[in-house]
Amino acid sequence: MTDSKPHFYLPTLHDSENGWGPANVIPAQFRDIPYAPYSKGDKLGRVADWTNPDGQKQDNRENTGRQGRAGFNRFNRDQHQSYGASFASAFAYTHTEDESSFSVVDNRSATVKKMAQKAAGGNAGAGGARARPQNKQQQQQQQQQGYRTVNSRPTGGKQQMQQGRKRYGYRDYDKPQRVRNASVNIGADWNLLDEIEFSRLSKLTFGIPEAEDIASYGSINYYNKAFDRVNTRNEKPLQHIDRVKYDTTTSEDPVIQQFITEDKATVYATDAVLSLLMCATRTVYPWDIVVKKENGKVILDKRPGGVFDFVTVNENTMDPPAENDKDTLNSWSALCNEATYINQNFARQVLESASAATKFDKPNPFASADTSSKLASCGYRYRQFNLASAREENAEPINMIVRTEVDAAVKMGNKDTLVTIRALNEFDPNAQGAGGALSWKKSLDSQRGAVVATEMRNNAAKLARWAVQALLAGAEQLKLGYVARATPKDNSRHVVLGTQAYKPRDFAAQMNLSLNNGWGIVKAVVDMCLQLSDGRYVMMKDPNRPILRIYAVPGEDDLDNEDYEQDDNATENDQAEN
């Protein structure tokens, strides 16, 4: 007689005495299954987790938009730590049937299809009398379903509208980073003295020193107020005016050389060099300043043909102009030459052609017999600033003489006020590097505030330097001109669309420019230079990072002629010819 009761037999347990992992004796039914490794960093709860963690991680990465980045972050940290992160995919089913040949012919819903069939049947049975009401009803139903009819083809209206709309800022982090070259070649024997992050420079502060006029040279003409009435409906073509304006380096200025001989001050600079230093934290493009220390005197100089001789365009936009294509009209180098040409000729065209309105104490110190009749309207004011800290008792003055420039004069009652003249230029609103700017010919008169705000955003460094230069020179007005191309594809013809006058201090405040921070940067740099030994040094902005570096340069290196071969005495118009 057999026993009908069921029996339960315990399975044989194979214990691994050597540690964690498969036992030495593996059952026959598990011998061909691959072993999935694991990481010591895995959480304990995941030992028995039979869900698909890979799919969950992938969904998280897709929702956060970080699936394309390989760097370590809080979304993919488990993926980098887990050696056997893909263990679930080893046993997952993979569908290998090719379905790429299938496509959806009609994406309308079944309701819309039935309505279309009924409408077609009704039109056939009732003739043309009921065709118009049925088609109108069908269109209304399709519109309620979110569709519209274009050329007898139903198209998703919402989807089509989204496709035509540009998504600004989408996946900007995946764009390749631009690698710029330094403004000067760093020699192998240069000695790196210090590195200063822009974040540290932006925290410096110093009281705005009072300016003292030392000497003035040159002469200026009156501003032609007829250009204040220029607008987009009454534009004026930009003219080429052959004039000479000198922009000599600090160390080769004959007036400053005389001041150095007479021991007038401790530090010497020009408004172009000083304004760049004060607005350094806003810059993006690389630049450099040459520091010369001689007999305890500090000279902040520039290299001829460097960044100081050209005007930048849209330096601060998120997607600046292309820098590696020199053949296009809208490349970085072509736009710099175009902007320099526009600034030179606009500043001369808006002046009255009569004889000089205001003559300073002494004639132009750079003029010669050959160029005296072709001098541009320019006044050189040499002004002194004391950089000694007021909180230091019995502190010796640290005098700095700066050569500043003014371009014209404006009659205000019985008094002549000094003016600096600059020009903003528009190249092509639809080209790369335009920075989302509005078309000036359509928007300058009606949306002047929006145009100015866009320029302040795209050219924050350039406009800040212009405001600082006007303040250093003691100018009462900063006159800005708006110059655009006659046609977007031609960079040889331009038109003046309007002008606007600002008070330099109000303009700086409108740009959120801290003058105390600018003078704090100058104070820190001067104190650092005074502690250096006699020699030559280079302060340069890192081409790809917001860092200021200071190098000691051996005496045999020729910085002036390293990358450029041109006359450093005068800046002629033909240098900026298109």
Automatic annotation (TrEMBL):
It holds the Pfam family eIF-3_zeta. The keyword Cytoplasm applies. Keywords: Cytoplasm, Initiation factor, Protein biosynthesis, RNA-binding. GO terms for cellular component: cytosol; eukaryotic 43S preinitiation complex; eukaryotic 48S preinitiation complex; eukaryotic translation initiation factor 3 complex, eIF3e; eukaryotic translation initiation factor 3 complex, eIF3m. It is found in: Cytoplasm. Residues 129-145 have a biased composition (Low complexity). GO terms for molecular function: mRNA cap binding; translation initiation factor activity. Component of the eukaryotic translation initiation factor 3 (eIF-3) complex. This is Eukaryotic translation initiation factor 3 subunit D. It comes from Absidia repens.
